[in-house]
Every structure is written in C-alpha cells, then in structure tokens.
Amino acid sequence: MIPSIHRQGSSTLCLLRYLYGKGTREEHVDPHLVASFDHMAPDPGRDRKATRKDLARLLDQPLHLLDTDQRPAQHVWHCSVRAAPDDPIMTDEQWADIARRIVAATGIDPGDGAGCRWAAVRHADDHIHIIATLVREDSRRPDHHRSGKRAQAEARLIEADLGLRRVTPGDGTAAKQPTRAERHKAERHGHDRPAREELRETVRRAVAGAASTEEFLGRLKDAGLLVRTKVLSSGDLRGYKVALPDDRNESKEPIFYAGSTLAPDLSLPRIQERFTTNPTPAQTADSERPGSPAASPSAPAAARRTTAQAAWQALLVLDHSGDDGAAAAQIAVTGEVLDALAKTSALHTRGELRKAAWEFERASRSHTRAEFRHAQDLRRAARDLIRGGPALGRGEEGASTAMAIDMLFFLVIAAVHWHARRQHAQQAEAARQAAEHLLAAYQQAAAESLSVLRERGRRIAPSLRHHHTATVRAALPELAEAILAEPGWIALAATLTDAEQAGHDPRALLVEAAAHRELDTAESISDVLVWRLRRTAGLPGYAPHSPQQAGRRTPSPTPATQPVAPPTNASARRR
Fold first, then answer.
1. Do 483 and 524 sit in the same domain of this protein?
2. What are phi and psi of 532, to 5 degrees?
3. Do both 96 and 226 map to the same domain?
C-alpha cells in the first residue's frame, strides 16, 4: 500500500471536481464518498441532492474562523492511498478505516475532537483520495509535519493488519517518480516512457566512466540532449539542465530538468565527486599479460575481461571490507558498469542488460556516503567499455561478455546482502531484481561458447576423459560425483584439456578454484568451474579449438599471489 502526499492546493472545489469527474482518460468509475470527518458529509457521487459545492463549503468552513489575511493561501491537503496490484479488492468499509487511520497518523485529524475537516473519495477499485482543509476546528493549524513519512509508517501497519502485500519502506533516496501528467503526456505522444525517465537513463549513461565535467557534458550533447549550464561569477560551473528536443510545453519551449530533480546523485556536485581522484593504473590481469592465450583480444573483449577482474576486486570489498564508504562506492559504480555494458553489448543481450541497469539504479544510492577513491578500477572498467565500443554477440566478444555478466551477477548478489544487512529494503529488492535480469542476459550470452565447449568435450578420447574423471575425483572428492553427473561436465573436460595443454596442473587449478569460494550451493558446479578455470588459466572464453590447435603460445603458470576470481557462471546463484 502506497500513500502519496500531493502538493498543497488553493481550491477545494477544483480538486473535488477532479475527484468526482470522469478522469483525464475516463478512468474514474462510480466516484463516491467512503468516509469523512463527521460521518455525515454530503456525497455528490451518490446523492442527487448533494453538489460538489456543498461538500467544498462544508470542508472550508474552518477557514472562516480566521480573518481573510490570516487564511493560508495553500489550504488544501491531498493524499492518495493505493493498494498493490496483487492485493484483493477491498470494501468501502475497509477503505474508510484506512482513511481514518491515515488522517490520524499524519496529524490531520488526530482524534482530539478538533481536527481538520476531511473526506475520502473512491473512484476506482484500488485506491482512494483524501482531501482536507488545513485549518482545525479550533482555528489552529494542524501538526502535519513530515506527514509523508508518517503516512508510510501507518501504511506498513495497515498492510500487516489486513494481510496485504508488504511494500519495502523507502529512505528518502529514491529518484522522483514521473507525475501523472508526465505519464499521460508520454502516452499521448506514443513514447514508451516519460521524459523524466528517459533523461535519467541518458544522464546515467553519460556519467559511466566519464573522467571530467567537460567529458560528461559532451556526452550529453552527443546523446542528442539539449544542455544548459549555470556559471557563477567566479567562472565555476554551478549546475546543468537537460531536455529532450521533442519534449516541449504549450509555448513550444523545451522542458528542462535539473540533474538533481532527475535523481539525488545526478546533481553536478555529486557527479563531480566521482572525478576528484587520480587513480593509479589497475593491476594487469593474467588474461591481459603478453603471451597469454587471451593476449591482444579485440577492444570490446579486452574491456570485458577488465570488467570481470574489476568486479571480482569489488566483490572482495563487499565481502570482507568493514569500510561502508568503500563498499557504497563499489555499489554506486557498479551501476556505471551496468550502464556501460548495456550500451555496448550485442542486441540479443542488450534488452536484459538495460533492464538490469535500470533496476540497479535504485540500489546504487543510499544514505551511506560513497568514497569514490576506492572504486576507481570499476570506473576505469566502465570507461574501457565505452571506449571499446559495441561488442559482437559471437566469438570471443560474446564469451567475454558472458564472463563479465557472470562476475557482475555475483557482485550484484553481494550488493543485495550488503543492503539487507543494513536494512536498506528498497535497495536490496532493486539489486535482487537486477540480478534476475543479469541471469537472463548471461544465459543468452553464454549459450554459444558453452555449446562449443560441450561439442569439443564430446569428441575427447575415452582414455583422456577417464584421466580427467580421475583428476576431478582426486581434487574434489566430496563434489566429484555431482560434477560428473551434470550435463556441463563435458565442457569442463574440454577446459581441463585446454589447461593441461597450456602448461597448467588441472588438479591444482581445481583445488585452488574450489578453495576460494564454495561450490555446494551452485546449480551447475561444472559450469562454475569452467569459467573459474578459464579465467584463472588465462584461457580464451570462446574455444572451438584447443590452445595448441589455435597456434597460441603457452603461458606461464598463474602466480600463487594472484587472486583467483570467484565463480563466473550466473547459474551458480544460491538457492
């Protein structure tokens, strides 16, 4: 159940005309009164003798207790209370009780016998509107400070009492939602989303990996937005506004939105906090060292390998660091990486990645202040993704996309747990939903490369497969039988062959991979091990041939001090 306090108004009659009218799109059905301050207010909806003016005069009578110059200009209080889509349809009596609880909790009518006059109107199955006059019967003003938060707290109690869907409570860090008028305007013009949402996504993509204010503003213009900036007398940039070229008011002028009105963290000062550090070069991953099988990949593939490595390092921060500022920064910049990946990935994965980035936007922001100096490797990864350009959905670019998505999946799951431990309910739920989209994107991205490995595994000689079976049993005795029974085992056999031909000890790799992160909750242990081993050994993600057949040089073994990446198969999600 979601109560929403709307902007105060100056005309009770105008609001009643809307509430008892047909609605902007004929959506109001049978508007009628369900409750009022005295239980006897006239109902213009079902009483033919009653008019809207009658109800307005009744509600406004306390205004006349004050001299004209003492009457508040904005005296109309308006609150809508909406049930969740999957809640049962409630009776008028239930809605009446809900209305009485809301006006009591918010201070509009606290039950002292001298509260404000109010009425609750229902014109749809799933919600009511409460209208009140902000002058009490004793001529004093009501104590309705922070009425929005008070209404939300009462709504949580109502949900528990009536067995309704429990809505995750907010903390005031969510982006402002489009108004009803903005949504109707988008529908009239045939747009998928209101301008506010379109702009918010475009601005976030412009932030992803940007290194300076100039680069950020340039990206906004390159994306086709109209941009205005405000400069102080000192010459310093104070803020910016953006608009869609075709979003205009009645005077045909562009409708501009300041960054801070799109989302709290999109104000210019908050964005510039991400540019204040001078990061040191990232540690070179094994897969990027000269002479490794993955050396000199395409720019998009290299960027995705860098992303997977940076995501693994960020995962360690969330798992083991006690610095909330560092963890918050990793989560915030994960949003940048998701935006960059969605922008540059192939068409068949782009839709799910875009949904993941959109959902994670809510998880990237909380009251914990992000210390961005701790997340520069992730910011560099986002920058590399943008500079690397679009990736193909096949070959090494497709496989490296799957690797990156996998690692980001585990990072997002870690963000779910981090937020949940701190009672950030909305952020945890948003991250969970983002993980669902990442899982779908991974399955689309990984299908080809895993299919190639499985086909190669089927062609392995029986004696070599028997050798790998013995290796698995020796390295992982407690998990071996489960691994060998999985359909993905043959892809793991092909990976063990590649690792051995590349000069690695397959048994040592298996032991090391299992030691760094548990495997018993994985839905497909063999798939997890395929990606762990291929990353640890620096093997290409897309491998229609063995490294020797591809004419690649044999790399040196992975140093013991090099951290091993966690499972990079999104199917390893905990049950």
1. yes
2. -65, -45
3. no
Domain that holds residue 43: 2-162
pLDDT tens digits, one per residue of 171-210: 788 898 888 788 889 988 899 999 999 999 999 999 999 9
In a domain, 428, yes or no: yes
Contact predicate 129/120, CB 8 Å: yes
549-571 tens-digit pLDDT: 654 443 433 333 333 333 444 44
Nearest to 415 by CA among 358, 366, 345, 342: 366
Q: In 12-168, which ranges are E strands?
A: 32-36, 76-82, 116-124, 127-136
Q: Which residues of 518-552 are buried (b: 16+ CB within 10 A; e: fewer)?
A: ebeebebbbbbbbbbbbbbbbbbbbbeebbeeeeb
Is residue 421 situated within a structural domain? yes
User: Are 375 and 314 in contact, with CB atoms under 8 Å apart?
Assistant: yes
Select from 215, 241, 275 the last residue of a domain: 275
> What does the pLDDT look like over 283-310, one tens digit per residue?
444 433 333 444 457 899 999 989 998 9
The predicted pLDDT at position 321 comes to 82
Query: Residues 356, 422: one domain?
Result: yes
Query: Taking the alpha carbons of 59, 65, 68, 74 in that order, is the dihedral positive or negative?
Result: negative
* 17: its two tokens: 């005309």
Residues 198 and 244 sit within 8 Å (Cβ to Cβ): yes
Which is it for strands 127-136 and 2-5: parallel, antiparallel or unpaired?
A: unpaired
CA separation for the pair 19, 27 (Å, rounded) = 11
Q: State whether residue 386 is helix, strand or coil.
A: helix
Confidence of residue 278 (pLDDT cuts 50, 70, 90): low
The domain that holds 89 is classified in CATH as 3.30.930
Query: Which residue has 């690797």 as its token pair?
Result: 403
Q: Of the residues 130, 162, 194, which one is the last residue of a structural domain?
A: 162
Q: Please state which of the ranges 146-150, 468-472, 546-550 shows the lowest mean pLDDT.
A: 546-550
- What is the domain count for the chain? 3
Smallest CA-to-CA distance from 300 within 438, 403, 395, 392 is with: 392
255/348 same-domain check: no
- pLDDT of 574 above 70: no
Q: How far apart are CA 22 and CA 123, in angstroms?
A: 9
200 is written with which tokens? 């918010």
* Amino acid at site 554: T
CB 317 within 8 A of CB 330: yes
Name the least confident of 162-176, 431-445, 548-562: 548-562
Residue position matching structure tokens 């009780």: 97
Please tell me whether residues 390 and 333 are part of one structural domain: yes
Question: How do residues 306-351 score in pLDDT, each as one tens digit?
Answer: 999 899 899 989 988 889 999 999 999 999 999 999 999 999 999 9
Q: What is the residue type of 532?
A: R
pLDDT at 565 (0 to 100): 39
